[in-house]
Amino acid sequence: MDRLSTLLKHFNLHASTFHQGGFCGTTNLYGQGRFGHAHLLRSGRLALRDKRGQLIELTEPSLILAVRPQEHQLLAIEADEAELVCATLQFDGGANNPLTLALPDFIIKPLRELQGLSGTLDWLFEEAFGDECGRDVILNRLFELMVIQLFRHLIASRSIASGMMAGLANAQLSRALVGIHNEPQRNWSVAELADRSGMSRASFAAHFRETVGSTPADYLANWRISLTQKRLREGRPIALIADEVGYESPSALARTFRRKVGASPKEWLQHTRG
User: Fold this and answer.
1) What is the C-alpha to C-alpha distance for residues 226 and 240, in angstroms, rounded to an integer?
2) Which of 26, 47, 49, 151 has the largest CB neighbor count within 10 A?
3) Is the pTM of this model over 0.85?
4) From 3.20.20.70, 1.10.8.80, 1.10.10.60, 1.10.10.10, which CATH number describes the 165-273 domain?
5) Which residues fall within 8 angstroms of residue 66, CB to CB, at 6 or more apart?
6) In terms of Cα–Cα distance, which of 122, 91, 79 is closest to 12?
7) Has residue 273 got a pLDDT over 70?
């Protein structure tokens, strides 16, 4: 059972490398409301200051990942001898999609804790500090691969305590979540999802809410609305979307959309496009 591929097909990741080499000084990063960031410290020392002013000092090779736009600063002095590779991250479906919202503002990990990513990280550093043809394109793809491998690591290690990622890390609940992700158009009942998870209805409903943070019905509705938002951005008609995500009519979808988002699909799309 593949717990990630459907998510990544809907909310595909695009990386763009913008720095590789020595780093000295202070850089302010905002993401412009659209981009997340990945920073890899290859060697030396580096400090990260978040928007609340909290300062985190890194003294060994480390990953800093912000999958959603986050205001932050990177700081280093010449004596720190910091070597850094950085990329912006952008997801199909917008910055606030189910995948990014399931993760904390920042993930900061020493590279020694990411053994499953070591081959990709070694290749990424080799490309970043080399001078081979096609380096920029390869670096972008390697950043994307690294982030996907990190998602896999977070699920396998159960590093996220609650939300969708915690549900995907659970052997029983993940079967229900994958079913919802793969077949949003299906009229899932709690009984069907519980049966898929190998649990009683009452036990499943309680465990789902405790782990994922919402009821199964709310999760299904939110997933459908997220898919609707992505497809609206792509210019698809609301009548077609309604059928694809399991609503009997465009008006039924519009009512749920307004209840969840606070605006009609047309109003939301106009606001998104500015």
Assistant:
1) 15
2) 151
3) yes
4) 1.10.10.60
5) 31, 36, 37, 38, 72, 105, 106, 107
6) 91
7) yes
CA 21 – CA 33 distance, rounded (Å): 26
Task: Determine which helix (DSSP H) or strand (DSSP E) holds 25, and give its type and residue range.
Answer: strand 25-29
Q: Which of 165, 155, 180 is nearest to 211 (CA)?
A: 165
Listed in sequence order, the DSSP H helices in the chain are 5-10, 98-101, 118-128, 135-156, 164-169, 173-182, 190-197, 201-212, 216-233, 238-244, 250-261, 265-273
Distances (CA, A) of 93 to 145, 159, 187, 227: 19, 25, 23, 8
Cα 13 from Cα 8, distance rounded (Å): 7
In this structure, which amino acid lies at residue 211?
T
CATH number of 5-156: 2.60.120
Look at residue 32 in the predicted model and tell me its pLDDT: 74
184, 229 contact by CB (below 8 A): no
Note the pLDDT tens digit of each residue in 180-216: 999 999 999 999 999 999 999 999 999 999 999 999 9
Q: Are 99 and 68 in contact (CB under 8 A)?
A: no
Nearest-angstrom CA–CA distance, 48 and 76: 9
Q: Residues 157, 162, 163, CA angle at the centre, nearest 5°?
A: 110
